[in-house]
Structures are given as structure tokens and as C-alpha cells.
Design goal:
Blueprint (H helix, E strand, L loop, with lengths): L9 E7 L4 H17 L3 E7 L6 H6 L6 H13 L21 H16 L12 H15 L7 H10 L4 H9 L2 H16 L6 E4 L4 E4 L4 H15 L7
Helix pairs in contact: 4-5, 4-7, 4-8
């Protein structure tokens, strides 16, 4: 049998919070993963509410100075990741109250794509959902926009020619809430500790935090070799 006919996709569940700076830094790894492995992987985006209440997590929960201290922490981290920009006032101004409005909007857009309501873009290009997700991260970390504000979210939808009315219908119907709630339950059931987390091999392999690209790619390659029945001693 020709090896090309035996290819199967490796499913990768990718858990993040839209306001997680590590996911912002790490998007380049996701892009490279898609470039290297193409249609041999299926990347499923999952959202978890680490920043569901920013006041609790940062304002009260960050012991080294609340929002001011967390801002310093993020800016210090950014020095090691020059491939992205971080606004010098990050978390000091226009801080969202919650990541949940952005997650809800993203799930609504994803549902519209899955149902065929939003026509697909050109082959190999990021979907509107993927573009919106990255644009919202840029809007917050680089441009200091409050992406928890519905007006800001609507502006970004319109910029990608995503119909705001259709997105709001998915939210009003409860379907987007249900999709978001399902992922929260999944997070608890799978013991997902934080963002970002790559989960593979039906949950048996997980990579959490600032993991290097080579480690991620090695895990994917090993799973692909198993799918192709390439002998392995381990």
C-alpha cells in the first residue's frame, strides 16, 4: 500500500486564554506547526477561562503589585520575545474585565464556519476564526484595546467581513454559550492546568507552557510515525 494513502490526521487540542501572554508569544509555534505538518494534523482550538475575572486573577491575585506589578512582569517577559510587540501600558490601561466576551464571540464565529454560514477562504489560508483570534490578541497586547468590550469585538468582526448579526444570533440562541461551557467542562475533566496547553494522543501526551517548538514537533512526528506503523522500540 502506498504510504500516502495511509496518512491519517493527528488531532491536537490547543487550550488557551485569549488574554494569556504566553499564547501570544507562542502563536509563532502554532503557525510553524501548521506550515510543517499541513493536513497531517487537525488543530482544534479550545478556550479556558484563566482570565475569566481579571480583577480576581490580577488586581487581587497578583501579589507583586496587582495590575501595575503584572504589567511589569509581562513587559519583562516581552524582552525575550522580540518577534511580537507589547504595548508599554499593557494591563495598566484598557484592561478587559474578562476574557469570556472574546471567547464567546470566537465560539460563535467558529460555529458559523462549521455550519457553512461563513464561506471558507482560499485554501491553505487561515480561517476567519483564526484571523479573528490573532487580530484580537494583537489588538490587546500590541494596540491596548479592551477586547472585552462588545463594540470593540464588533469592529473586529466587521474588519474581517464577518456579519455581526449572525454572530449575535449564535450568542442569543445559546449555542455559543453551550460550546464555551463544553470546553470549560472538558478542561476540568482533562485536568488542563493552564495556557497554552497542547493535548495529543487522546489526552496521553500534553505539553504545557513555554515549550520549545522542537519538542512540540517531535511529539507530533512520533505520533505520525505510529499512525504509519513505522516500528519503534519505545
Amino acid at each position: 500500500m502506498d504510504v500516502s494513502t495511509r496518512k491519517k490526521r493527528i488531532v491536537i487540542d490547543y487550550y488557551t486564554d485569549i488574554l494569556c501572554v504566553w499564547a501570544y508569544f507562542g502563536q509563532v509555534k502554532v503557525d510553524e506547526l501548521k506550515r510543517e505538518f499541513g493536513d497531517r494534523i487537525e488543530l482544534r482550538y479550545r478556550f479556558i477561562p484563566l482570565f475569566g475575572c481579571c480583577e480576581q486573577r490580577i488586581g487581587q491575585g497578583w501579589e507583586e503589585g496587582g495590575y501595575e506589578g503584572y504589567s511589569r512582569f509581562v513587559l519583562e517577559l516581552a524582552n525575550d520575545f522580540p518577534h511580537v510587540e507589547v504595548h508599554p501600558e499593557i494591563w495598566r490601561r484598557n484592561a478587559p474585565a474578562s476574557s469570556l466576551p472574546a471567547h464567546l464571540t470566537l465560539k460563535a464565529v467558529e460555529l458559523l464556519e462549521q455550519s457553512g454560514t461563513l464561506p471558507p477562504l482560499e485554501p491553505e489560508a487561515p480561517s476567519r476564526f483564526e484571523r479573528l483570534m490573532w487580530n484580537l490578541r494583537l489588538a490587546f497586547f500590541r494596540d491596548l484595546e479592551n477586547i472585552g468590550d462588545r463594540a470593540v469585538l464588533h469592529r473586529h468582526l466587521r474588519a474581517l467581513e464577518i456579519p455581526v448579526e449572525a454572530v449575535e444570533r449564535e450568542i442569543a440562541s445559546g449555542r455559543a454559550y453551550a460550546a464555551m461551557a463544553e470546553e470549560m467542562e472538558e478542561q476540568r475533566a482533562r485536568g488542563i492546568e493552564g495556557s497554552p496547553t497542547f493535548l495529543m494522543n487522546e489526552g496521553r501526551q500534553r505539553l504545557y507552557g513555554n515549550v520549545g517548538y522542537r519538542a512540540i514537533a517531535a511529539n507530533v512526528q512520533e505520533l505520525l510515525e505510529r499512525k504509519l506503523d513505522i516500528p519503534s522500540w519505545c
